[in-house]
Here is the input.
Amino acid sequence: MMRSDDYCAVSWFTRAGSLAKEPCYRLPVLRNMLVLCLVLFSFNLLGCSSSTPVYQQQSTAGLPRSILVLPPVNHSVEVSAPYTFLSTITQPLADRGYYVFPVAMVDRLMRENGMHTAHQMHQIPLDKLYDHTGADTVLYATINDWGQKYQVIQSSTVVSVGLRLVRANDGAVIWQGQARATNNQNSGNGNGLAGLLIGAVVDQVAGSLVDKTYVLSRQANNNAIRSLQAGPLLIEYYQTASK
Here is the structure.
């Protein structure tokens, strides 16, 4: 039976017309909760610190610091694919620790110098790119597949881009990757053949109004760039933060 000193407050809500007392937490309970919080906090500190030593001991000597992204060669039928790709590639590269030349500036520079297609831009000698921009590396991209695919009862959105990072001073390929993501959508939700056909039509109309490739392109680029070696800016950030 609970003693009178086990109560610390009187509730202002009533039950069956009478005031009810609420039990307060006693010291042993509070002490156990505090110990549990300290243990969880210690695990968080260990988890955070375990990811940084690899950067703290790593030298940035010889690592490229900047990346120039050329407009991609487009092998798909989607005219807007190169622009969507370029709008989603800068962030993951910067997060990985590299300075990325503004893609709009690079595109304008190329066009002002008579290079109006991605094929022409990809043929520019690396030494010329380095002399005019000072970029340590150049990222070449090829769009292999892009856009929404419609079948009888389902649709899918596909993004597939080949990536190749080349060192500007000697032409060595220092990284290759594949940015790919797919979103399959089944229409109809089990409402029979009529529901499947109606759902397919709705998906096609909605797909013409909303571009789903932007989200997929961002997802594909983020996943692909994770395998790229950490750049000097990211390494130096962790080394500075650890001091």
User: Anything to note?
Assistant: The radius of gyration is 28 Å. Residues 4-50 form one domain.
